[in-house]
Structures are given as structure tokens and as C-alpha cells.
Design goal:
The structure is a single chain. The chain is α/β, with parallel strands linked by helices. It folds into two domains: 123 residues, Rossmann fold (3-Layer(aba) Sandwich), CATH 3.40.50; 94 residues, Arc Repressor Mutant, subunit A, CATH 1.10.10. 44% of the residues lie in helices and 22% in strands. The chain contains eight helices and twelve strands. Helix 1 links the parallel strand 1 and strand 2. Helix 6 packs across helix 7 and helix 7 crosses helix 8. The protein is elongated, with a radius of gyration of 19 Å.
Length: 226
């Protein structure tokens, strides 16, 4: 999943990023409500937002209201130290889909995120199991990739890399993030391996599709915005 965590506690924010990344998610971290709104407004595809209620500038309730007012339907789970009924009602009325009281177990947060994304998937992805970007079409169900209608024969790793890039158009993904998404845990590979596979992938996609995979100097790669 591609997640946005809006949390002003530096230690908790870093911990959530580490744990979620360890579970093979792509994670953005914002320490203020305004920074979180900026990330949500970039057009980057997000699967879910983890939102702290007690933020230093805009409170989490107001952030949720603004996200919903802008037409964003991304699932939101709120984190708060307040467990009173009025607080939970206020968060849900502001647009949150779920509510988790601090302190919490990471395993519960992860399970709630998975449930939220499962429920949101039909509405958020009207094209079903197809990912499209320019001339590139990836059919997850049939494990098929076409460029301008021409079938492309990809290896399992190339397919996984392309799928990850297509899920996050316009988002710069580090080599480490791509490794986490496309290679099984425990497999001994290096970030340079990603460079080699991106080269193979670009060649197979041809001029029309390959140029849509952009190099982000010092970071990794991104798929051009559709």
C-alpha cells in the first residue's frame, strides 16, 4: 500500500514508518497538518491515511474535514489519546473511517489498514485489476502487460517492478523501496540490481513505454504522471 502518516511525535512517526516499510508499504511522513494536506493534494495515489488528532498547527479533525472537502475519498484512520465517545464521534463525523486510541499495538493498526483498503478498493479502483499509464496497460488478473496494444513478455521481477511504479505515478520511489516491493524478503540483492532490471524493463517497453519510467537522481525512479 501507499500510505501517508501525519504524526507530530518524531519518535512515533519514525517508528510507524519503519514498521510499515518493513511490511513492504510505501510510506510518506508529515509532521504537521498543513504538510499532510500538501502531500494529499499532490495528486499522488494514496491507499490510506494515518492521521494523528493532536497536531501542532491544524488539528486532525480539521485536517480530515479539509481532505474530505477537497473530494478525496482515501480511507482515514485517526490516532488519538482521547478515548471518549464525543471525541470518536467528532472524528468520524469529520470524515475518518476508523479510530484507534493510543497506546495501540502495531499489529492492530496494520490489520485495520488492511481492512480499510479492502473495503475501499472497489470504489477507489474503477478499472478493477488494470493499471494504466499512457500506452502501458497492466492486467493484474491475467498477468499481462501491453504497450499500445502490443503484448510484452516480462519476467516476474520486471512485472513486480512495473506494477509498483504504476501504482504510484509521479511518486519518486527509492531503490530500497522497489527492492522491498519486487523481491521476496530474505533474498540477497543490492540496490544496483534495481538499476539493471529497470534497464531491462525500459528496453522491453520500447520508446513509447520505457521513457515513462523517469530517473530521479540520488533517489531512484518514478512513473510519469498519466
Amino acid at each position: 500500500m501507499h500510505l501517508l502518516v501525519i504524526e507530530d511525535d518524531p519518535r512515533l512517526g519514525r517508528l510507524l514508518v519503519r514498521l510499515l516499510t518493513g511490511d513492504r508499504h510505501v510510506v510518506e511522513l508529515a509532521a504537521t497538518g498543513r504538510d499532510g494536506l500538501d502531500v494529499a493534494d499532490t495528486g499522488t495515489s494514496l491507499d490510506a491515511i494515518v492521521l494523528d488528532v493532536g497536531l501542532p498547527d491544524l488539528g486532525g479533525i480539521e485536517v480530515a474535514r479539509r481532505i474530505r472537502a477537497r473530494g478525496c475519498r482515501t480511507p482515514i484512520i485517526m490516532l488519538t489519546a482521547r478515548d471518549g465517545l464525543p471525541d470518536r464521534v467528532a472524528g468520524l463525523d469529520a470524515g475518518a473511517d476508523d479510530y484507534l486510541t493510543k497506546p495501540f499495538a502495531y499489529e492492530e493498526l496494520a490489520a485495520r489498514l488492511r481492512a480499510l483498503v479492502r473495503r475501499a478498493a472497489p470504489a477507489a479502483r474503477p478499472d478493477g485489476a488494470r493499471l494504466l499509464n499512457g500506452p502501458i496497460v497492466l492486467d493484474e488478473t491475467h498477468r499481462l502487460v501491453t504497450v499500445e496494444g502490443r503484448p510484452i513478455d516480462l519476467t516476474a521481477r520486471e512485472f513486480a517492478l512495473l506494477e509498483c511504479l504504476l501504482r504510484h505515478p509521479g511518486h519518486a520511489l527509492s531503490r530500497e523501496q522497489l527492492l522491498d516491493q519486487a523481491w521476496p524478503l530474505g533474498v540477497a540483492v543490492t540496490p544496483n540490481t534495481v538499476d539493471a532490471f529497470i534497464t531491462f524493463l525500459r528496453r522491453k517497453l520500447g520508446p513509447g513505454g520505457g521513457r515513462r519510467i523517469e530517473t530521479v537522481r540520488g533517489i531512484g525512479y518514478r512513473m510519469a504522471q498519466a
